[in-house]
Amino acid sequence: MTATPPTELLVCIKCRGQVETPADDRRPGHALHDALAARGLPQGVTLRAVDCLQNCDHGCTVALRGGNRWTYVYGNVDEASHLDMLVDGAALYHATDDGLIPWRQRPEHLKRNCVARVPPLDFADAIDPATPPMPNLTEI
User: Per DSSP, which regions of 13-140 are E strands?
Assistant: First the structure.
């Protein structure tokens, strides 16, 4: 039996959504990171701060990645009310071999706020490389 590869929960600490930066200069993304660090994460899940996930207009943004799994980026995360949802989602992600949490098991927020799904480095190409590409309609 192979060991489950580690999972990283990346949190953009520069996220501020549509609010002005607070007087203490602690943005909502940084507050989210700090709250998750204080709460603790499931076994095998590591919390990491990142400077920017380029989803600035859509609230706090996080990503789940690890091993040879699909990576997911989620937006519109609330730094106060979504902590349990993120911990539950990270545990579900960590339990997968490929990063694909069954739809019905995903927390509702993760179903509706996926910004991107990035394939793992080693994935099966969806198109047979031996098949010529479809011609561009402007070339016909």
Answer: 45-50, 60-65, 71-77, 114-118
